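REQUEST ID: PR-0412
SUBMITTED BY: lab tech R.K.
PRIORITY: routine
TASK: structure prediction, single protein chain
INPUT:
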Amino acid sequence: MRDWENEFPAAAAIDLHLMEWTLDKVRFYKSQLMTSDGQEKSRGVCRQYDVSISFLSGDCLMQAPSWKSTGKLRTDLQSDYLRSAVLALPWASVS
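STATUS: complete
OUTPUT:
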């Protein structure tokens, strides 16, 4: 079990049903939010433990600001972050 998965039973144990996820630059493209399989796995864990992920903290935006990049790298970083925020978070809510 990955570390992020351990947070769900711990949250359920203390009757916590709302979570925030953080996207870091170091593992940005390995985040469960960035792949269809990871999103499906996350959806299942949310349902299993009745947890809603309603907030996304974009630490990656401070760690590697897209506005300091240029060209394709800049647009890729911006669109990838928006894709994770817009497409990944709405499914996470189970309420």
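NOTES: The chain has a mean pLDDT of 79.
REVIEWED BY: pending
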